[in-house]
Amino acid sequence: MRRGHAADAHLITGAPPNPNDEFDYRRKRYLITMSIRIVCLILAAVTYKIIWLFPIFVVGAMALPWIAVVLANDRLPRHGSRFTRYTGTPARELTVVGSRADATRSDGTTNPDQPDAAGIPTDRGDDA
Predict the structure, then answer these.
(1) What is the pLDDT of residues 75-87, one digit of tens each?
(2) Mean pLDDT, the chain, integer
(3) 24 vs 21, 33, 43, 87, CA distance in Å?
(4) What is the DSSP code (8-state) at residue 79?
(5) pTM (predicted TM-score)
(6) How far is C-alpha 121 from the geometric centre of its chain's CA atoms?
(7) Does residue 121 sit in helix, strand or coil?
């Protein structure tokens, strides 16, 4: 890596997974889901006389192909995205609002309209 090209460097945690490994994972997930569907079809055929159990297996056998396709088309979770990387720039600059320096006039007296550090106005109107 040459100097000046640090922005081109990639972190290993941000690299995508190997496409072959990802395909194998998706194929395995699809086969498991479709195997469960075959079991549901067999159980539906065995329990066709049990009124309350038969529909459960039939619905499972009908829904599992759709679920298998959705899961097979889903990508692997990204493991490296849970960390926040330091970018070198501050999010915002903090400023002091309502300080005692703002409440002091040029003649050295305090401004009665400005509150002090505790938020209490400096002139309480006792001289009226």
Answers:
(1) 776 655 555 666 6
(2) 75
(3) 5, 14, 29, 35
(4) S
(5) 0.50
(6) 45
(7) strand
- On the 0-12 / 13-18 / 19+ scale of CB atoms within 10 A, 58 is middle
CB 50 within 8 A of CB 58: no
Contact 31, 71 (CB under 8 A): no
For residue range 44-64, list pLDDT tens digits in order. Answer: 999 999 999 999 999 999 999
Q: Exposed/middle/buried for 88, CB within 10 Å: 0-12, 13-18, 19+?
A: exposed
End-to-end CA distance of the chain: 76
pLDDT of residue 17: 76
Nearest to 114 by CA among 103, 99, 100: 103
